[in-house]
Amino acid sequence: MSFEVVQQISCDENLIAAYIDGELEAEQRLGVDQHLDDCDRCREELRVHRMFVCELDAVLTQSEVAMPTDFSRRVAARATSDLRGIRSASENKKALAFCVVLALAALALLSDTSRMAAIRTTRGLLRTIVGTVSVLLSAFYDMVASVTVISRVLSRKVIVESNSRGLLLVLFALAILLLSRMIVRYHRAGATE
Known about the structure:
Radius of gyration: 41 Å
Structural class: mainly alpha
Helix content: over 70%
Distance between the termini: 89 Å
């Protein structure tokens, strides 16, 4: 063994770990053996390291811990519930503003032809959305108007033409009750603001 190898070996914990794991060449191994004969601190480190490896090996060879049958579902549910509420409303607003700024910057950096194509596509998408919302709103308006006309015809037929004053009084009382509840809610809402 060369004198250089012996002189290079000093109190190095990584060298002791490599010694235990059998990763050293024969010449280095002999050098570590000689160093261990002379160094109490490294001998103690070697003993502690060997004990750790033995304990780790004992733990890993023991029987496996029994996992609940729905362990993965529980972990996924816990992770999902732990992520809720992490961001505040102000953080969400900042993130949205940042995304809008990035989109505008990307649009500004596009070439003129690409920019115009992107704008035309966006306009077409917006027209489609506005058209869909318009159709839905007009259908809702027509439905409400139809229900109103049908209820007027039926109420006139039932109440006025049948001379049923009792039903008229019940409907009047119901209207007064609903009106009073609406007034109370209005005042409560005003008091809390």
